[in-house]
Write a structure and sequence with these properties.
The protein is mainly α and 156 residues long. Helix content is 71%, strand content 0%.
Protein backbone atom coordinates (compact mmCIF):
# COMPACT_ATOMS: atom_id res chain seq x y z
CA UNK A 1 0.00 0.00 0.00
CA UNK A 2 1.50 3.31 -1.08
CA UNK A 3 0.55 6.52 0.69
CA UNK A 4 0.79 9.91 -0.92
CA UNK A 5 3.66 12.16 0.13
CA UNK A 6 2.91 14.88 2.65
CA UNK A 7 1.39 18.00 1.14
CA UNK A 8 2.12 20.37 3.99
CA UNK A 9 3.69 23.71 3.05
CA UNK A 10 6.95 22.51 4.58
CA UNK A 11 7.25 19.39 2.40
CA UNK A 12 9.17 21.18 -0.36
CA UNK A 13 11.85 22.70 1.91
CA UNK A 14 12.20 19.34 3.68
CA UNK A 15 12.68 17.60 0.32
CA UNK A 16 15.15 20.26 -0.83
CA UNK A 17 17.03 19.92 2.44
CA UNK A 18 17.31 16.15 2.13
CA UNK A 19 18.22 16.15 -1.57
CA UNK A 20 20.79 18.92 -1.26
CA UNK A 21 22.40 17.20 1.72
CA UNK A 22 22.77 13.95 -0.19
CA UNK A 23 24.05 15.73 -3.34
CA UNK A 24 26.46 17.91 -1.34
CA UNK A 25 27.88 14.81 0.31
CA UNK A 26 29.31 13.46 -2.95
CA UNK A 27 32.05 16.08 -3.45
CA UNK A 28 32.48 16.54 0.30
CA UNK A 29 33.18 12.87 0.92
CA UNK A 30 35.64 12.81 -2.00
CA UNK A 31 37.80 15.56 -0.46
CA UNK A 32 37.59 14.35 3.14
CA UNK A 33 38.83 10.81 2.68
CA UNK A 34 42.19 9.67 3.99
CA UNK A 35 45.12 11.30 2.23
CA UNK A 36 43.71 14.83 2.15
CA UNK A 37 45.28 17.28 4.56
CA UNK A 38 42.55 19.94 4.52
CA UNK A 39 39.09 20.64 3.18
CA UNK A 40 39.23 22.95 0.11
CA UNK A 41 37.79 26.45 0.44
CA UNK A 42 35.32 25.93 -2.40
CA UNK A 43 33.73 23.05 -0.49
CA UNK A 44 33.56 25.17 2.65
CA UNK A 45 31.93 28.00 0.69
CA UNK A 46 29.46 25.61 -0.90
CA UNK A 47 28.50 24.18 2.50
CA UNK A 48 28.09 27.66 3.99
CA UNK A 49 25.92 28.74 1.05
CA UNK A 50 23.78 25.61 1.44
CA UNK A 51 23.30 26.23 5.16
CA UNK A 52 22.42 29.91 4.65
CA UNK A 53 20.00 28.99 1.86
CA UNK A 54 18.28 26.48 4.12
CA UNK A 55 18.00 29.04 6.93
CA UNK A 56 16.34 31.47 4.52
CA UNK A 57 14.00 28.81 3.10
CA UNK A 58 12.96 27.59 6.53
CA UNK A 59 12.36 31.16 7.75
CA UNK A 60 10.23 31.92 4.67
CA UNK A 61 8.24 28.69 5.01
CA UNK A 62 7.72 29.19 8.75
CA UNK A 63 6.58 32.77 8.20
CA UNK A 64 4.12 31.80 5.48
CA UNK A 65 2.84 28.85 7.52
CA UNK A 66 2.30 30.92 10.65
CA UNK A 67 0.69 33.88 8.90
CA UNK A 68 -1.43 31.66 6.64
CA UNK A 69 -2.62 29.48 9.50
CA UNK A 70 -3.70 25.91 9.11
CA UNK A 71 -5.15 25.37 5.65
CA UNK A 72 -6.49 21.88 5.79
CA UNK A 73 -7.75 20.11 2.69
CA UNK A 74 -10.52 17.68 3.47
CA UNK A 75 -11.50 16.77 -0.11
CA UNK A 76 -11.98 13.06 -0.64
CA UNK A 77 -12.11 12.17 3.05
CA UNK A 78 -13.30 8.56 3.04
CA UNK A 79 -11.99 7.15 6.28
CA UNK A 80 -9.96 7.82 9.40
CA UNK A 81 -6.70 8.02 7.43
CA UNK A 82 -7.92 10.35 4.71
CA UNK A 83 -9.63 13.01 6.79
CA UNK A 84 -8.89 16.28 8.39
CA UNK A 85 -7.28 14.73 11.47
CA UNK A 86 -4.51 13.18 9.36
CA UNK A 87 -3.81 16.51 7.68
CA UNK A 88 -3.80 18.23 11.07
CA UNK A 89 -1.22 15.73 12.38
CA UNK A 90 0.94 16.30 9.28
CA UNK A 91 0.68 20.08 9.62
CA UNK A 92 1.47 20.16 13.34
CA UNK A 93 4.42 17.79 12.84
CA UNK A 94 5.77 19.98 10.05
CA UNK A 95 5.40 23.10 12.19
CA UNK A 96 7.28 21.45 15.07
CA UNK A 97 10.08 20.44 12.70
CA UNK A 98 10.25 23.97 11.28
CA UNK A 99 10.53 25.38 14.79
CA UNK A 100 13.38 23.02 15.64
CA UNK A 101 15.19 23.82 12.41
CA UNK A 102 14.89 27.55 13.08
CA UNK A 103 16.88 26.96 16.26
CA UNK A 104 19.26 24.24 15.06
CA UNK A 105 20.46 25.75 11.76
CA UNK A 106 21.82 28.99 13.27
CA UNK A 107 23.31 26.96 16.14
CA UNK A 108 25.05 24.68 13.62
CA UNK A 109 26.37 27.73 11.82
CA UNK A 110 27.84 29.15 15.04
CA UNK A 111 29.33 25.80 16.06
CA UNK A 112 30.79 24.79 12.68
CA UNK A 113 32.31 28.10 11.54
CA UNK A 114 35.31 27.97 13.89
CA UNK A 115 36.10 24.29 13.14
CA UNK A 116 39.41 24.25 11.24
CA UNK A 117 39.64 22.85 7.73
CA UNK A 118 42.43 20.52 8.85
CA UNK A 119 39.99 18.38 10.85
CA UNK A 120 39.37 16.20 7.81
CA UNK A 121 38.23 13.17 9.82
CA UNK A 122 35.62 15.29 11.68
CA UNK A 123 34.27 16.66 8.40
CA UNK A 124 34.16 13.17 6.89
CA UNK A 125 32.14 11.63 9.71
CA UNK A 126 29.80 14.59 10.09
CA UNK A 127 29.13 14.53 6.34
CA UNK A 128 28.50 10.79 6.43
CA UNK A 129 26.02 11.17 9.31
CA UNK A 130 24.24 14.05 7.57
CA UNK A 131 24.00 11.97 4.40
CA UNK A 132 22.35 9.12 6.27
CA UNK A 133 19.99 11.62 7.89
CA UNK A 134 19.13 13.09 4.49
CA UNK A 135 18.45 9.66 3.03
CA UNK A 136 16.21 8.79 5.98
CA UNK A 137 14.34 12.08 5.56
CA UNK A 138 13.84 11.40 1.84
CA UNK A 139 12.49 7.96 2.65
CA UNK A 140 10.05 9.40 5.16
CA UNK A 141 8.87 11.99 2.64
CA UNK A 142 8.51 9.49 -0.20
CA UNK A 143 6.91 6.59 1.61
CA UNK A 144 4.67 8.54 3.96
CA UNK A 145 5.45 8.99 7.61
CA UNK A 146 1.77 8.81 8.42
CA UNK A 147 1.42 5.10 7.56
CA UNK A 148 1.59 4.37 11.31
CA UNK A 149 -1.15 6.97 11.87
CA UNK A 150 -3.37 5.07 9.42
CA UNK A 151 -2.80 1.78 11.19
CA UNK A 152 -3.54 3.41 14.54
CA UNK A 153 -6.74 4.94 13.11
CA UNK A 154 -7.97 1.61 11.72
CA UNK A 155 -7.76 -0.04 15.11
CA UNK A 156 -10.01 2.51 16.80
Amino acid sequence: MHTAPSRTPAARPFAFEALSTVLFAVPMLMVTTAGHRRVPEWIQSMGLALLLTMIGAIMHTCRSTITGGLKLIAFGATGPCDGVSRRLRQQSGAERRLGWLLVLYPAALVILLPVPDTWVRFWFWSTLLLTLSGMFSLGMLLFGADRADCRAGEGS
